[in-house]
Amino acid sequence: ESSGYESESAGGDRAAAAAGGIRGRQRRARTAFTSEQVCRLEKTFQRQKYLGGSERRKLAAALHLSEVQIKTWFQNRRMKLKRQI
Questions:
Q1: pTM, whole model, 2 decimals?
Q2: Nearest to 74 by CA among 41, 47, 31
Q3: Where do the TM regions start and end (predicted)?
């Protein structure tokens, strides 16, 4: 007898797809920041918690990262600070 939960039957494929496996979109590889990049990002974060567009472009160019990577790093860092407080 089945308990009625899909996970007991063919739910394994769905779980693999949700994890980025068989059918789902592939997740982006995690960015491995260098220690120099992290140091510069942390120093900038200490000065200002939010970056405007022009500041983000300059920092991205200086660190050889994309603007999206800078934006995401700052979002994650603000959340880390919030958790610490």
A1: 0.68
A2: 41
A3: none
